[in-house]
Amino acid sequence: MHLFTLQFYIQVIIEMWDEVEDLDAIIGPPCSVSCEPTALLTAAWGIPQVSPACLSDVLTNKQTYPTFTRSVGPYSGNAPLYLSICKLFGWVNRVAIITTFELTYKILADSVQNEMEKAGIETLFYTLRPLILGSGPDLETLRDQNELVRKLKTEVRVIFIFRMPQDIRAFLVSAYDEGLMADGGYVFISQDMDLVLDAENTYRPETEEFIYTGSITVTFKKSDVPGYKAFQQDVVDAFGDPRFDDYPHIPVNSSTDLVSSWEGTECKSIFFHFIYV
């Protein structure tokens, strides 16, 4: 299994529809960017699609996605939590929000901005193109990002980053380069920021000790009751696959063949749930 592209997921689901007789349902994919177009296909085919990880608010539209459901809530549901974090630590004057054009993160960023402004917190809002592309960093976007980091250094101390995990990591590298990690004077808050190890050609060993300094990441909490933990371990044991180890990203067949652990465990958990039902 790879960190698959959108094109891959679309191709696989079309192949399933063409080749699998009596296809009753599709479980997955594990990311919103892939769920949005594939859920249009399953809606047209009239078959259920269930995802354990797609958090896009767009997918709540039952007129557009009548056969799609998920076992997690949408990202925008976390917006009040981000306001609570700011209030808890007294960050109530000014914040910055960095997002992208991808709807999953854009809607979350808009929701957080709305919460902040209702509370009287000044919000600086910036939109960047995706930085990490298939062939590596987009140099024009990287220049824009570096300029933005230099601007933010003098204007704000609390920075929300709602982008793809690899783009968040690249932003933190830029912040490190501009000295924002030096004295603990800045905080970076994000949603579901995995510790992306390779980050598409942006990996620099000398930064690893520092780039997550001052970072807070919000994620949907999994149950910590013993029964759930035992169930999750049963899933891992049943498949006996090291790709599902409890670590954000680990090699499978090569240095570029990676998988997120929660994708495996959660997808398989949903699979077993349907067996029990």
List the helices and strands and how they pair.
Layout: H1 6-19, E1 26-27, H2 32-45, E2 49-51, E3 68-70, H3 79-89, E4 94-99, H4 103-118, E5 122-127, E6 132-133, E7 136-137, H5 139-153, E8 158-161, H6 165-177, E9 187-191, E10 215-218, H7 226-239, E11 249-251, E12 258-260, H8 261-276
Parallel strand pairs: 1-2, 2-3, 4-5, 4-8, 8-9, 9-10
Antiparallel strand pairs: 6-7, 11-12
Helix pairs in contact: 1-2, 3-4, 7-8
What does this structure look like?
By secondary structure, the protein is an alpha/beta fold. It folds into two domains: 6-73 and 223-276, Rossmann fold (3-Layer(aba) Sandwich); 76-218, Response regulator (Rossmann fold, 3-Layer(aba) Sandwich), CATH 3.40.50.2300. It is built from eight helices and twelve strands. The chain has helices at 6-19, 32-45, 79-89, 103-118, 139-153, 165-177, 226-239, 261-276; strands at residues 26-27, 49-51, 68-70, 94-99, 122-127, 132-133, 136-137, 158-161, 187-191, 215-218, 249-251, 258-260. The strands form four sheets. It has a five-stranded parallel β-sheet with strand order 5-4-8-9-10, sandwiched between helices. Helix 1 (6-19) runs parallel beside helix 2 (32-45) and helix 7 crosses helix 8. Residues 196-201 and 243-263 have low confidence and may be disordered.
